[in-house]
Amino acid sequence: MFYLKKQELKTDPLQLLSNNWQKTMQQLELSTKDARLKAFYQAGAVAADTALQEVSFVALDFETTGLDPVRDGIVSIGLVPLTLGRIQSSKAQSYLVKPRVKLNESSVIVHGITDSAIAQAADLELYIEPLLQALAGKVVLVHHLPIERAFLYHGVMSRLKEAVVFPMIDTLALERGFTQSGLKGWWRQLTKQSQPSLRLADCRQRYQLPAYQPHHAVTDAIACAELFQAQVAQHFSVSTPVGKLWS
Amino acid sequence: MQIEQIEILNFLKRYSPFKELPDDLLHQTAMQVDIGYFKAGTPILRFGEPLQALHLVRSGAVETYRRNGVLYNRLSEGGIFAEQGLLRDKTVIFPATALEDSLIYFIPAECFELLYKSDEVFADYVEIGDTQRKKSGVLSDKNSNELMSSEVRQLIGRAAVTLAADATVQQAAQLMQQESVSSLLIVADQSKDAALVGIVTDRDLRNRLIAAGLDYQQKVAVVMTTELVCIEQHQFVFEAMLLMLRHNVHHLPVLEEGKVLGIISIADVIRYESQNSLYIVSSIFRQQTVAELQSLSTELASCFVRMVNEDANSRMIGAAMAVTGRSFKQRLLELAEQQLGPPPVPYCFLALGSMARDEQLIVTDQDNALVLHNDYDPLLHQDYFAALAQFVCDGLAACGYSYCSGDIMATNSQWRQPLRVWQQYFTDWIEKPDAQRLLNSGIFFDLEGVWGQVRWADQLNQQIRRQVKANPDFLACMARNAISRTPPLGFFKDFVLENDGQQNNSLDIKRRGTAPLADLVRVHALSIGCTATNTYERLLAVKAAGILPKGRADDLLDALEVIAMVRIRQQAKSLQAGRAADNKVKPEELSAFERKTLKEAFQILSYAQKFLKFRYPGGRQ
After folding, report:
1. What's the DSSP call for residue B514?
2. All domains of chain A, ordered by start, with CATH?
């Protein structure tokens, strides 16, 4: 999901974001009508001052038919649960989704999921429930949050006519913060140097994490989870409150 | 099968011992891997912690330590650690710390156990690991099969209770009661180093004293047994059992270099007894005809396979097969004497070569000979011994020990001679050495008496040791012969790679491995007057004598085990597949790990041959 450039992102549907996710989720539980969403919000969110080592995370990645969260659709979903100590790749899940728009050639080249592959797949609506169950009560990790949040928001909105939002941590945003802060970042800004690449693979390389074949949903989710563990180990601590990182 | 953990699977496919796994096991493993990131300097495992997973370095570097903080190992991408703890009690033995920022794969303990149990190559790998661990691991007694692997000394519970020969029977009985033992060793007198003269057991008191109605004030020497059947402390427990069976005794004094360490009783052995494979040997002595004996040979093959599967080492397997072979010979000779009548003059039946060395495997020629009493008169006795030899050799052939292609068998009249002729043979071989002639007769320098006047075999062995010392040219000739067969360089793809770059499809692992190694060790052993015949024991003696450069004897011990076990495993595989076992090894049938260790072993052998050449330059033609 890194082939999307920032200016191409057309929608910003999310007005209700706050840092107090616990409260936000409680409010959403009351205002939501769909039973699946209600159950999801009921699971709630941890308090913002919870230490990272106490938090259960899920790394999430989508492959999509294109770049527009309104017009394009999700074709695959990868999920990997984790804590700071352990990435449970053994509990990884993935769903192949049949999008409501035709696959276009340029996206097929990226993720390699073809018409024949999704012929047997079902519409996202069928996967909303298991997906929400997997994410319930967890803090979700993604690399480049606006994309995942917008695609899921629109995917659910167009099917359930209701909004889905929840706390997420963006490893890309964290990385941007690291590269802009400190003496190095200051020097870079001062000399108007271009920012270092924030693509997942490039971020990982900065932590000597191995190169993976990108654009496979579970692999990308694992890659994101590993990056997050490395970021926390290098820049935060196990007792950093989760509220400092999520949005 | 499509799995989601593609990167994990691809990584496992690149490294031993995972890449050798069959696809389904590899997939199952990849799907169970979890991952953790460790910043440089952070601990990964702490000593004594419960251990839930095998650890695999995905990226970065890890150091493991001994308890005392000394570095144990350093691992990079693809390296595994924590396997020793998993194999023991599932707690951390070697603590680990990330040397660099590292990504670690966790393979759950249950998955590890499944792989360990179901995959031989994986099991070997995690047990033997790297070269360092190979050295400490290969020869260690990891074996669960206690009877096969236990040495007699382990059964000794306490020092033997001794009594001087001039004590009375009543004193003996009182001492036995006091010490609650069922036997006493009787020594010549009260002095500290008094010679052992006999043994008194409960049974002796019953049969020779009470039943005979003798006076309790008799000297104990009257009722003791003087023909002592003893066992050396390093012999295996099953050999003790065989000795007891063979001689119908219930107690065996255990010796170390002629001194008594203690006594083991049949009850001690029974406590250890669990192995039905041993019953083959005892049942050999119950068979009444050659045909009945023949029926046991298939059981012998399955016993061999079972021992391999039970992880016996080459020394145990060789010894067990040799004991079995010896028992076949002994029983055949008993049967022959029943049929032909008692021998007109005493004789000694000799086992030669691998059986004498206790290194017999399942595929073996019968190499044997007869030593006859010096009163032997060909005119009177020739027919008897020719018939005896024929009976035994035919019987052995029927039981699966094929006739010797070099005709080194008791049926050959040249090898059926009175003791003085044998003594002359050895004198000729040793004093007028000839490399070509010794090629054919080298096998006689590993000899053992298996039946009859076995002390003649000892006499011949002593003569050999004595004469070899005085004849350095003989050793030079033996050395020349010992380096005539060389190991290959190693393996390339699916070929055996020779030193000159040639490639072959298969390897005769006996001709190119175990045999030249045994030849080499024999030369060194003869040079130091070592009386052992077993290659392993000879190597220990050679090591103790310090005639090899430092560390080389240990290397040779490792190489011996590696080469012998590859040979043994190949034979067991053939037998299990229903094929006849032979000594051919095809590289494609070897694991990457076996190839690696074999190559190292061949290299050690090759060095050792060069050293032998250096030590014995020239030699008379």
Report:
1. I
2. 17-244 (3.30.420.10)
* B5, B101, B103 member nearest A218 (Cβ): B5
Decide if A209 touches B, using CB distance below 8 A.
Answer: yes
Cβ separation B42–A233 shorter than 8 A:
yes
CATH of the domain at B315: 3.30.460.10
Q: Are B97 and B44 in contact (CB under 8 A)?
A: yes
B299 and B160, same domain (yes or no): no
Co-location of B292 and B266 in the same domain: no
Read off the pTM.
0.48
Regarding whether B293 and B254 lie in a shared domain, the answer is: no
> B299-351, pLDDT tens digit by residue?
788 778 877 776 778 887 888 888 888 889 999 999 999 999 999 999 999 99
Half-sphere exposure of A231 (CA within 13 A, CB side): 25
Preferred mutation among A87, A205, A231, A235 to probe B, highest tally of B CBs within 10 A: A87
Number of domains composing chain B: 4
Same domain (yes/no): B184, B236 = yes
Binned at pLDDT 50, 70 and 90, residue A209 comes out as very high
Least confident of A149-153, B87-91, B292-296: B292-296
Distances (CA, A) of A179 to A176, A226, B141, B288, B388: 5, 18, 57, 90, 94
Closest-CA distance, A231 to chain B, in angstroms, reads 10
Q: How far is B318 from chain A (nearest CA, A)?
A: 45
CB contact under 8 A, B7 and A229: no
Q: Test B6 with A234 for CB contact under 8 angstroms.
A: no
